[in-house]
Automatic annotation (TrEMBL):
It comes from the Eukaryota. It comes from Brugia malayi. Residues 108-547 form the UDENN domain. The lineage of its organism: Eukaryota, Metazoa, Ecdysozoa, Nematoda, Chromadorea. This is UDENN domain-containing protein.
């Protein structure tokens, strides 16, 4: 296998590896039309209920949010679970789906056809695929598929050649969530790197007399295990920097390994011809929330805007974060995704949307995307459509556009203020969005206070750790009863066709809250795909079934979260005991006063 410079004819290739890469034909497929029809029918029935009783507006909105969460979860995650289980069934044969090298080549009349309306000197190209396409390693649908290189190098229109005297700022890691038209989801674990003065075919444009161009190495798998796969990707990049043949040898070894399910590590022992020995141990250890440099983004956007974005993600909205540069936008998207820990974003996630794929924003499914500020004007029609539509539409009223410095652009829920009151205006608009998404103002304000206290110490590891504690304690206070609700047994029972057990567990979790605000939030949150995916990972880490499902949970974060859950449980028990004694004291005191009178 060698790297080829043969151009790919993008305009005739069926891009069936991304729901976002097949343009409008996939984004509005027949499957989504059926889903939209079902949602609109549900909306009409709920609207009739609302008209009959205007006084129950809050309850109506809550029911509508629960309905939407169920619809989104069922339509976008059911086929993913089926595909994931199928992958687990054939795990004995390989560790991942495929590996790619995406680089930049000189634009010409052929490879430039998909980008005819875009000004650029280089275009992204898939230069290497492992294993070869004629190797049907998954199923009959995988051998003929083509990947979309624009997503892997989103800023190709601004490609910069790095000369020998130029400093490379460092490798960049990011994750793409890929979905095809049938609902199958995979994760691409990407490392953007620079190889200097490597000896390749003279026809290859990655290296030139003027300097070197960055490229991306990606490992693609349906398993969401970023710590493990990023560790593997880093090792692969190190081998690639030596030469492509060494990378191929490593991939040949690890590809047929099994995913470690019992807490073990991936061991690779290498003995070169010159006698050099190398023992590779991939434990899957990587950055955690406390080391992800989230504090800089929270300080820049402000605690209130950050809370609004978190609320939008928990409500499974379509979220776009805009900024001035690829680096800051990518950092913001990844930081916000990290703030969801111990939960994770199970839908489409694109750190920076390529200039050539802006129509992806029309996708009807939830997403988290980064966008360069220079492309904001191209979303004018989308923002206007969202502004003019019915506010009770379950399928469309779900777009949130945020600028890193300007705050929330869409939706605008409060009256405009003068420039001197811009900070106050941004905060009011943020809390108004939280209330619209049925995240009670009391909960939103409490989280904003926690975040403000965390970043008060400045930026850096200490602030990141405080942010981690703030998020974990906030989530723990909302779902702390989950351990006593039988979710583990209910999840296993559901996989066997018993759906009543999971409904009982959800109802028990909701009823466990004495706080009205917490009950309102939990009632719709337990129906989301985010909560289901988290429960699935928790079940996967249960000792009694680790042999059945690969352990893909972020153990460190979940362990810390469980510590906060235990603390929240104790605090809740103490409050209940205190309330009992207080009520008893009041009854005795009132009876005493009655006797005196």
């Amino acid at each position: 296998m060698s790297r080829s410079n043969r151009p790919i004819s993008h305009h005739k290739v069926a891009r069936n590896d991304f729901i976002t890469a097949k343009r409008q034909s996939v984004l509005f497929s027949e499957r989504f039309n059926e889903i939209v029809t079902k949602k609109q029918t549900s909306q009409q029935s709920l609207s009739c209920l609302c008209d009959s009783d205007e006084s129950s507006g809050v309850n109506f909105k809550l029911k509508r949010q629960v309905t939407r969460a169920k619809l989104v979860h069922r339509s976008t995650l059911a086929l993913y679970d089926k595909h994931l289980n199928a992958f687990y069934g054939c795990m004995e044969s390989h560790l991942f789906d495929r590996a790619l090298i995406i680089n930049l080549v000189k634009r010409n009349e052929v490879n430039g056809l998909p980008y005819e309306n875009i000004r650029c000197d280089y275009v992204p190209c898939i230069a290497y695929i492992y294993p070869e396409r004629n190797n049907q390693h998954m199923n009959e649908g995988h051998s003929s598929r083509s990947d979309c290189p624009d997503l892997f190098i989103p800023d190709f229109t601004r490609a910069k050649v790095f000369r020998e005297s130029d400093r490379w700022p460092g490798n960049e890691e990011f994750t793409l969530t890929l979905t095809d038209e049938s609902g199958k989801r995979t994760f691409a674990y990407c490392v953007r790197h620079l190889i200097r003065r490597h000896e390749l075919n003279n026809e290859q444009a990655t290296s030139s007399k003027e300097g070197d161009l960055p490229e991306v190495f990606a490992i693609i798998s349906p398993i969401h295990a970023p710590l493990f796969y990023f560790a593997l990707a880093r090792e692969c990049v190190c081998y690639l920097h030596d030469n492509l043949k060494k990378l191929e040898n490593l991939l040949n070894v690890v590809y047929r390994c099994t995913f470690p399910t019992d807490g073990s590590s991936l061991h690779v022992f290498e003995k070169a011809k010159d006698g050099f020995k190398r023992n590779i141990v991939i434990r899957g250890q990587g950055p955690t929330l406390g080391q992800s440099d989230c504090s800089g983004i929270v300080r820049r956007m402000g605690p209130e805007i950050t809370v609004a974005i978190i609320a939008a993600l928990l409500a499974e909205q379509r979220v776009i974060i805009a900024g001035g540069s690829v680096q800051c936008v990518c950092h913001a998207v990844q930081s916000v995704a990290c703030l969801l820990h111990p939960f994770s974003w199970p839908y489409t996630l694109i750190p920076v949307l390529p200039d050539s794929l802006l129509e992806i924003v029309n996708s009807p499914t939830p997403y988290l995307m980064g966008l360069l500020r220079t492309n904001m004007y191209k979303l004018k029609s989308l923002a206007a459509k969202d502004k003019n539509q019915c506010t009770d539409d379950l399928t469309q009223d779900d777009l949130v556009i945020v600028d890193l410095d300007g705050g929330i652009f869409v939706p605008q829920l409060t009256e405009l203020y003068t420039a001197s009151e811009s900070i106050d205006y941004k905060a009011k608009n943020a809390f108004a969005l939280c209330e619209k998404l049925l995240v009670p103002r009391k909960l939103a304000v409490s989280l904003a206070i926690k975040l403000k206290e965390a970043i008060a110490v400045g930026e850096g590891p200490r602030a990141d750790l405080l942010l981690q504690k703030a998020m974990l304690s906030w989530f723990a206070a909302l779902i702390w009863p989950y351990k006593g609700c039988g979710f583990y047994a209910a999840f296993v029972a559901e996989s066997n066709g018993d759906f009543e057990s999971i409904r009982t567990s959800k109802a028990q979790l909701i009823a466990s809250h004495s706080s009205k605000s917490a009950r309102r939030f939990t009632e719709w949150f337990v129906e989301t795909g985010i909560f289901r995916e988290w429960i699935r990972r928790k079940v996967a880490s249960a000792p009694e079934i680790t042999s059945m499902i690969p352990d893909v949970a972020e153990d460190v974060v979940n362990q810390k979260f469980d510590e906060y859950v235990i603390a929240a449980t104790l605090q809740s028990s103490q409050r209940r005991v205190t309330n009992i004694f207080t009520k008893a004291h009041n009854v005795v005191f009132r009876s005493y006063l009655a006797k005196k009178l």
